[in-house]
Amino acid sequence: MQDTRPLLLETDFPPLFRDQLQTLQVNLGYLCNLSCTHCHVNAGPTRTELMDKETIEMVLTLLAENNIGVLDMTGGSPEMNPHFKHLVVEARRLGVTVMDRCNPTILVEPGFEDLPEFLAEQQVVVIASMPCYQEQNVDKQRGKGVYRESVEGLQKLNAVGYGQPDGNLLLNLVYNPDEPILPPNQESLQQDYEQALGAEHGIVFNELFALANMPISRFGARLLAKGTYNSYMTLLRDSFAESNLATVMCRNLVSIDYQGFAYDCDFNQMLEMPLLATDKARPHLRDLLGKDLAGQPITRGEHCYGCTAGQGSSCGGALS
Question: Alpha-carbon torsion 156, 157, 160, 166, what sign?
């Protein structure tokens, strides 16, 4: 697979500095029951990298000692980590808001049937991948039959109270294009999702997050293979919106990989561009205990233009 990393390290992207740390985003491993064409972590069924129990305990210590309010769990499929439930229960015991970046097909996999009830009991915020409301597009991007299994998974979440307009269990969906284009307007796209998924499958949800694809890993390799890398980067740079700099996620988030090493965001993690906020060349989460990161510089690359293009893109959807 071709690698875009050497093309992304040098950049003229504007300097960025950290605000107060509010969110700890933790990658629990690259194991996943799917292998999607856009996946920026190269996750899949054959990956064996998983966060171990010792590192999980350090995550909990960091949450408590640094008074971090949000734990954002990602993967792979984070639920496939054997310590997933332990981390959720203990983080909730600390009063932390827990978010699960969920591939909804995992909810219908053998051995994971109790997940909807568990997530509801712990009041976990579920952010579910649903890259389109049309079956043919989802299956093209994620694999044959994935749309139907995703629908079934979302229906299971609805059945335990997720996404209901008068409830407190949040279910947010994630859209991302499968082509080298920017996402459409998030608000109008959400209306399309609500109409299509509601009418066809009775699915309800709270918000839609429209994300831009980053030119790294599998998606970056596709850009290089198809000769569209340069045109996509030109699109991102030409669509730069300075106003988005104020709310990019890296200002108040730290990303932790499955081994416990720290990065400014999940994309920097995949590009092996470590956090600059300590004196360690490759800082570990133990180096962040009790440390105030506010004012520290953020590691930047050409891919950062993906977060600031057009309406902007973050783990919470559009920035503007």
Answer: negative
